[in-house]
């Protein structure tokens, strides 16, 4: 179903929010994108596709209140990137939650992270958990908890090369990691935004595949048609990034992610496994 009122999207000019916009537009749903700079190339691209643009800042209550008053639902994502890190992420997310409550938004879909509710101690998991908790206190909320983004591997897929490809991450090659494509997070979010009952229980951990990194290298090599192997790096390559170090150490505490594969596929029937995602990336690179 589609709503007669617009669905608001915060983060629409980014990869994840953009995937939500794509999925909503594909369903014929009107979309209202909250942007800071409507003159940016990404914002103008949204406008050219019929998306309503409103200037809003997650740190400015006044800019949030009016555009939220007549929406059918809100998609929210938060990020810890920036000078104020996880504290800024939690502050902004809580501020949006409170604005949604003041405006009477009937339903919020929040993209958090797999494991946020399980006390991982990972700083950017814990900041998202704080946002989850505030949302649950003040507004009807559906929580999407994506696992490891397949897109994290994209910079290592050198489509122009022909020799051996080596994938590297600071995690042992025999540790299984659940993963999901950003496009499928968007599709799941759109389904939840258009049908509040789609996620039974109000929360779902999303994944389209589960592979060790050794297996992932095999899949990548099969699609690219070139020898590919995986090389495990020591976690110390992350330097003083305690947040990322905590996350990669957590990956080894199997099971770390605990996705609901059945519900993910119910929300996104054509959810991508790693092979399908690599094929998509390869095709996109050839067309560019």
Offer a concise description of the structure:
The chain has 288 residues and is of the alpha/beta class. Helix content is 41%, strand content 18%. The mean pLDDT is 96.
Give an account of the 3D structure.
The chain is an alpha/beta fold. It has a single domain (7-287), classed as NAD(P)-binding Rossmann-like Domain (Rossmann fold, 3-Layer(aba) Sandwich), CATH 3.40.50.720. Helices cover 41% and strands 18% of the residues. The chain has ten helices and twelve strands. The chain has helices at 15-26, 41-48, 61-68, 85-103, 123-138, 182-194, 213-224, 242-251, 261-267, 274-287, and strands spanning 7-10, 31-35, 52-55, 73-77, 108-111, 141-146, 148-149, 165-169, 176-180, 203-206, 209-212, 228-232. The protein has a seven-stranded parallel sheet, with helices on both faces. It has a three-stranded mixed sheet with strand order 7-9-11. Strands 8-12 form a two-stranded parallel sheet. Helix 1 packs across helix 6, helix 3 crosses helix 4 and helix 4 (85-103) packs parallel to helix 5. The longest helix is centred in the N-terminal third of the chain and has 19 residues, at 85-103. It is globular. Belongs to the NmrA-type oxidoreductase family. Keywords: NADP. InterPro entries: NAD(P)-bd_dom_sf, NmrA-like, NmrA-like_oxidored. Residues 4-258 form the NmrA-like domain.
How many whole angstroms does the radius of gyration measure? 19 Å
The CATH class, by name, is Alpha Beta
Order of SSEs: EHEHEHEHEHEEEEHEEHEHHH
End-to-end gap: 34 Å
What would you give as the CATH superfamily?
NAD(P)-binding Rossmann-like Domain
Strand content range: 15-25%
Number of strands: 12
Structural class: alpha/beta
Low-confidence regions: none
Number of domains: 1
The number of helical segments is 10
CATH hierarchy: architecture: 3-Layer(aba) Sandwich
Provide mean pLDDT, rounded. Answer: 96
Level of helix content? 40-55%
- Quaternary status of these chains? single chain
Give the overall silhouette: globular
Side-by-side strand order of the widest sheet = 3-2-1-4-5-6-10
Keywords: NADP
Pfam families: NmrA (PF05368)
Family: Belongs to the NmrA-type oxidoreductase family.
Domain NmrA-like: 4-258
């Amino acid at each position: 179903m589609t709503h007669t009122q617009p669905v608001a999207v915060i983060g629409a000019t980014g990869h994840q929010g953009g995937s939500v916009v794509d999925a909503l537009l594909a369903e014929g749903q009107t979309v209202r994108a909250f942007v800071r700079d409507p003159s940016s190339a990404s914002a103008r691209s949204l406008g050219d596709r019929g998306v309503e643009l409103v200037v809003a800042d997650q740190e400015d209550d006044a800019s949030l209140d009016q555009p939220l008053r007549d929406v059918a639902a809100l998609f929210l994502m938060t990020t810890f990137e920036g000078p104020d890190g996880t504290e800024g992420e939690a502050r902004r997310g809580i501020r949006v939650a409170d604005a949604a409550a003041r405006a009477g938004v009937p339903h919020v879909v929040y993209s958090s992270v797999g494991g946020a509710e399980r006390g991982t101690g990972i700083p950017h998991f814990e900041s998202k958990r704080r946002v989850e908790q505030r949302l649950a206190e003040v507004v009807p909320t559906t929580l999407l908890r994506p696992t490891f983004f397949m897109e994290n591997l994209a910079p290592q897929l050198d489509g122009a090369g022909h020799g051996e490809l080596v994938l590297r991450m600071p995690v042992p090659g025999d540790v299984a990691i659940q993963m999901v494509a950003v496009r499928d997070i968007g599709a799941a979010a759109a389904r939840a935004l258009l049908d509040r009952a789609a996620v039974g229980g109000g929360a779902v951990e999303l994944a389209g595949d589960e592979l060790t990194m050794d297996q992932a290298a095999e899949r990548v090599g099969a699609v690219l048609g070139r020898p590919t192997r995986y090389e495990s790096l020591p976690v110390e390559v992350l330097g003083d990034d305690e947040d990322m170090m905590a996350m990669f150490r957590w990956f080894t505490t199997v099971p770390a992610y605990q996705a609901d594969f059945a519900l993910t596929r119910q929300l996104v029937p054509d959810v991508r496994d790693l092979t399908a995602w690599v094929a998509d990336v390869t095709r996109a690179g050839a067309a560019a």
